[in-house]
């Protein structure tokens, strides 16, 4: 039976995917790179340094940055991002999420966060959602980033459940890949055309109910 739901954080619990986008956009603008929202889809769920590498790949001429300069760019993006997430309050949980967490608890289904972000705890603190998850796995606790399944497998392990008894929820292509590689059922939030591999795709978290979670798990 269904034992747990493992949630991605950025873009699923709250709209920090937008904050990541705005921070990378500022760096892209400074460097004169044609960074768009549609290209930003590739950065979702991807680690900070890998995101920077993808952003710089937009340059027509090869960019010769030293390791130090790359670190400085990533740090500056993170400073911009940290400033944006300072403003997050409990009102910023995405639609339907608090209700779904309550309902899962009532039914004895465990919940976890599986985030690629080093800022996950700050975001969850600002949402005042620390107590609402049975466990939280962030970037500091894993070696391999999504699409590697490690972060989802670690969540299942800490919950003490088999991955096969879990549903994972993601807004990123790399994230759905990670869920599938972990042998969990998958729900993607976003455009159906972008997620041919997901067991279920919902346009927004407002549609994410216990019934939909069960539906994905039964596939
Ligand atoms: P940070 P998630 C991911 O979080 C974001 O989707 C991705 O855009 C970001 O680059 C990554 O975290 C690293 O974040 O720079 O804060 O360590 O979606 O897995 O919760
Ligand atoms: Mg995400």
UniProtKB/TrEMBL annotation:
Q: Which GO terms describe its biological process?
A: carbohydrate metabolic process
Reported EC number(s) for this entry are 5.4.2.6
User: Catalyzes what?
Assistant: beta-D-glucose 1-phosphate = beta-D-glucose 6-phosphate
UniProt signal peptide: none
The site annotation (Important for catalytic activity and assists the phosphoryl transfer reaction to Asp8 by balancing charge and orienting the reacting groups) covers: 115, 146
Q: Which GO terms describe its molecular function?
A: beta-phosphoglucomutase activity; magnesium ion binding
Q: How is the cofactor bound?
A: Binds 2 magnesium ions per subunit.
Locate the residues binding substrate: 8-10, 24, 43-48, 51, 77, 115-119, 146
Q: Which InterPro entries match?
A: B-phosphoglucomutase_hydrolase (IPR010976), Beta-PGM (IPR010972), Beta-PGM-like (IPR051600), HAD-like_sf (IPR036412), HAD-SF_hydro_IA (IPR006439), HAD_sf (IPR023214), PGP-like_dom2 (IPR023198)
Active site per UniProt: 8, 10
Q: What class of enzyme is it?
A: isomerase
Q: Which PANTHER family match?
A: 6-PHOSPHOGLUCONATE PHOSPHATASE, HEXITOL PHOSPHATASE B
State the family named in the UniProt similarity comment for this chain. Answer: Belongs to the HAD-like hydrolase superfamily. CbbY/CbbZ/Gph/YieH family.
User: What NCBIfam families does its record include?
Assistant: bPGM, HAD-SF-IA-v3, PGMB-YQAB-SF
> What's the protein name?
Beta-phosphoglucomutase
| Organism per entry | Paenibacillus antri
Give the gene name. Answer: pgmB
């Amino acid at each position: 039976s269904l034992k747990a739901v493992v949630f991605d954080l950025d873009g699923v619990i709250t709209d920090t995917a937008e904050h990541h986008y705005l921070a990378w956009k500022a760096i892209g603008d400074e460097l004169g790179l044609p960074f768009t929202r549609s290209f930003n889809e590739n950065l979702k769920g991807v680690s900070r340094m890998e995101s920077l590498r993808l952003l710089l790949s937009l340059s027509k001429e090869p960019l010769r940055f030293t390791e130090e300069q790359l670190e400085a760019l990533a740090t500056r993006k993170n400073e911009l991002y940290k400033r944006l997430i300072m403003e997050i309050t409990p009102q910023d949980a995405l639609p339907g999420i608090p209700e779904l967490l309550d309902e899962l608890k009532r039914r004895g289904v465990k919940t976890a966060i599986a985030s690629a972000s080093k800022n996950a705890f700050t975001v969850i603190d600002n949402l005042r959602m620390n107590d609402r998850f049975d466990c939280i796995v962030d970037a500091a606790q894993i070696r391999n980033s999504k699409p590697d399944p490690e972060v989802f497998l670690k969540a299942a392990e800490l919950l003490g459940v088999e991955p096969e008894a879990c549903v994972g929820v993601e807004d990123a292509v790399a994230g759905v890949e990670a869920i599938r590689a972990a042998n969990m059922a998958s729900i993607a939030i976003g455009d159906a055309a972008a997620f041919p591999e997901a067991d279920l795709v919902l346009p927004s978290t407002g549609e994410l109910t216990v019934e939909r979670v069960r539906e994905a798990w039964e596939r």
